Amino acid sequence: MNIDVANSFNFIKNIGFYTIGYEHLYSIRYKTVIINGVYMIGGPSVGISKPDQLPNNVAFLQNYPNPFNPSTKISFSIPTRGYVKLIVYDLLGKEVKTLLSEERNPGSYEVNFDAAGLSSGTYVYRLQVNNFVDSKKMFLLK
Fold first, then answer.
1. Distances 9 to 4, 17, 22 between C-alpha atoms, Å
2. How many whole angstroms from its chain centre is CA 3?
3. Residue 86's CB: how many other CB atoms inside 10 A?
4. Is the pLDDT of residue 16 over 60?
5. What pairs with residue 64 in β-bridges?
6. Which has the higher per-residue pLDDT, 20 or 39?
7. Coil, strand or helix at 6
8. What is the value of pTM for the model shown?
């Protein structure tokens, strides 16, 4: 959310705030209030968190840490609601574990993969969301 400071004077009905907003470190600060019809310039600051921005496209990131022992995190973002499948395979193509298989809303996600019962080696993890499909390698070192 970008704010044009010169044009950011707003009256929020039924609340009584006359606002001068400016963006500062991902938040919006309101500095002027109306109390009983009196403008209080430099009045109390009320911080409103900037809402998370939705991604424009699917982002599928490399797991971290990599190599790992025994767990790692897999991150991805989706721009629209969709059915998400996140599956880990060994190098022979055998499914090791299904991490996700469900409908998800737009946003960013982080999934933990615990490989405590697996042997050292290379594994492949695959993300499928609607028409998007991608795979990445990860390395388990014990």
1. 9, 10, 10
2. 22
3. 21
4. no
5. 73
6. 39
7. helix
8. 0.62
What mean pLDDT is predicted for residues 44-60?
A: 61
- Do the beta carbons of residue 31 and residue 49 sit within 8 Å? no
C-alpha closest to that of 61 among 120, 134, 130: 134
Residues in the chain: 142
**Predicted confidence band at 38 (pLDDT cuts at 50, 70, 90)?**
low
The arithmetic mean of pLDDT across residues 95-111, rounded, is: 94
Report the C-alpha gap between 129 and 134 in whole angstroms: 9
| Among the listed residues 97, 96, 107, the one whose alpha carbon sits nearest the alpha carbon of residue 129 | 107
- Are 116 and 89 within 8 A, CB to CB? no
User: Which structure tokens are listed for 57?
Assistant: 């496209």
Domain boundaries, the chain: 5-49, 59-140
CATH topology of domain 59-140: Immunoglobulin-like (2.60.40)
- 3-class state of residue 57 by DSSP: coil
